[in-house]
Model the fold of this input.
Amino acid sequence: MDNLDYIKKECLKKGADDVVVEENSTNENLIKFVNNKIVNIQKIDSIDIGVFISTKKKIVMASIKDPKKEVIDKTINDIFSFSKFIESNNEYFGIASGPFKFKRIKDLYDKKIQNLNELGIKMVKDAIDNSKIKGIERSSGVMEWDTTKRRIVTSGNVDHNFLSTSIYFSIRSFADKLASGAQTCCSNVLKKLDYLETSKKAAEIAVLAKNPKRINQGRYDILLGYLPAANLLNHFVSNASAFEVKRGNSFFKGKIGKNVASQKLTISDEGNLANGYSSTEFDDEGMPTRKNIIVKKGILKTYLHNTNTAHLFKTKSTANAGLVSPKISNIVIESGNIKDQLSKIDNGLYVTNNWYTRFQNYLTGEFSTVPRDGIFLIKNGEIAGSIKEIRISDNLLRIMKNVVWLGKERKQVYSWEVETPTLTPEFFVKDVNITQSFR
Done:
């Protein structure tokens, strides 16, 4: 009997009503480069066994990093000791009940990534060299890749496992102290990682960002590049969690069937997306993942559910568990039909990156975010100058309703500011409020 079966058996023997045991065995690799030089290489192997139990609606979760029998036995004993001091959760209604049929997800695993090794160093050096276009002083960033074996065993008659790989590249290039460009790319298969194009694009943005000027505060039409588009979509879609809706912390509350965005926007969560950076064959309850259309042509169609929130909302799980609250896997935006985005803009701004997105009111959607790296004034379809020190201060619902067109090409975005991988085009938003970020 292996560790997961043993943990499930022992927990049920001690009186658990529901048990979920999940093991993630991961080989992680990282290469960091600063000012065109590799400065750090790391390789980390880790095992994490997550244990979830409910007994008389009392819920306890634990994590085991050292899978020795004595550690496992102590953790199980601690779980049931702690449960004596926990109050019952009357809004707990169990976990998903199988058995289920699982389908393999396309482009979830690539043995070339698993065996990348020294090739990863060459890729980073090639990306650095590729960023050395005229006018670039230096570039910094990171390349990360990993291989993960994941297995889940539950008291709901689920026992399934799969193998996945992923690789991520991020670069920021500087033409001078005030002129920078940043881009990222990610994939589960090596052949779809556009790291050279990514490094080139970051450098081109940095060169164009030289000599930035201030602009007046006011309302501007804005083309949101891939990074800021994905960042704002992360915050927008997070409101679809039924847990956030129930606790009154979502501007989607009471809006099923109502208009929440432009008719141009159709937004899905796809846990089984081919080459999706967060794709997984099962959610945290062991239910097979799937595509859920959240917004269709601007209309809110569903919240995202686990078993418990589905029971409370009198519906079915969307396979988005989160054992405590539903969670998003991969955000997917249907593409538009605009090929050359800048040529379609007579007068507006182009924002290539942003950070520090903060909400003044989660329930109504008032927020601000700070554009960074290349920010450009667009006149008659061409870049007419570089801009600095602005802040977007607006309402996220209003911005999403003011999307007037979307680009044709989509990119999968993941970064520190985009925690949920997002497959999105660039899109153009009318009448966005701009203030100055510094004085």
